Amino acid sequence: MNDVDIVLPWVNGQEKDWNEKKNRYLANANELQLKCAVDSRYRVGVNLKLWFRSIEKCMPWVNKIFIVTDGQIPDFLNLNNPKIKVVFHEDFIPAQYLPTFNSNTIEMNVFRIKELSENFILFNDDIFPLKYIRKEYFFKNELVCDEALERIVAPKIREKMVNCFEYCKINNMAVINKHFNKRSVQKKNFFKWYNLKYGKRVLRNICMSYFYDFDNFSNRHLANSFKKKTFKEIWEKEYEILDTASKNKFRNYSDVSQYLAQAWQICGGEFYPRKTLGQSFLISDTNYKKIINQIKIKRYPIICLNDSMEIKNYEEVMCEISQSIESIFPNKSSFEL
């Protein structure tokens, strides 16, 4: 199998200069963008060095890690490690989209990173593997491994924070239904859609087989496998939509996300069925102790620790969570100075 790289977008939202730049552009933002650009979107959570420890321990087969930043470099990072490459936004994102504070813009353009391998895994800095994960969990015979599971769109109105992904879901699926006929897609790859590896969740596909169009897919907020060619193809066929979305400095109504590329790969049949392992948590003051217990016993092979504005004692909570991860990965990695 060819090399598999990791792409990790990262920002230190507490840095003064970066914050001042963000606030200058927020002055021209609309109401939705203001609500989406909350502090929890950019603040540093679990110590980043623990993320590198978990990758080195649980995914040692990774070829190279591309850490994508807006001119920032973590102070602990060992830049002499040949498996590390720091990439600034201006190194790969077209100038007309910069500066950007929109993770969707960053993720939909990462395929432009010159040295990035054709096969790559897109991470976030709040996603941690806790157990060894085989390369074949992500790629098999040069195809991504994923699960083709449908679900309905169920938008919510939130009082304190707008979930901008609700708009992304609609935009993503509008593009998918333009290019893929659901009946033809599922007939051509029947056993990839109705696969026993999905367990009881395959019932979703059975229940939704009545509908002629795709409503939505199961988007697990975990590490996702991608081919560079997928993004290239979408940009070639839907340049105007992606160009408009990439001009959004902050998350906005016209955004599309990495889940468009994920769905594109699935609908194209270019994937191997697998059961997605792991769990995504939305941290709060009431549940973080339970999350810590799950981490310590390594209940899941990979987890996502979603930040939340609901956390009142933020520093205390994140410190305890960091300590629980450090108890699993106490040894300094080769990525640290």
From TrEMBL:
The superkingdom listed in its UniProt entry is: Bacteria
Instruction: Output the InterPro entries linked to this UniProt entry.
Output: RPS_phosphotransferase_WefF, Stealth_CR2
List, for all copies, the residue spans of the domain called Stealth protein CR2 conserved region. Answer: 41-142
- Show the GO MF annotations: transferase activity, transferring phosphorus-containing groups
PANTHER family given for it?
GLYCOSYLTRANSFERASE, PUTATIVE-RELATED
Q: What is this protein called?
A: Capsule biosynthesis protein CapG
* Native source organism of the sequence: Lachnospira eligens
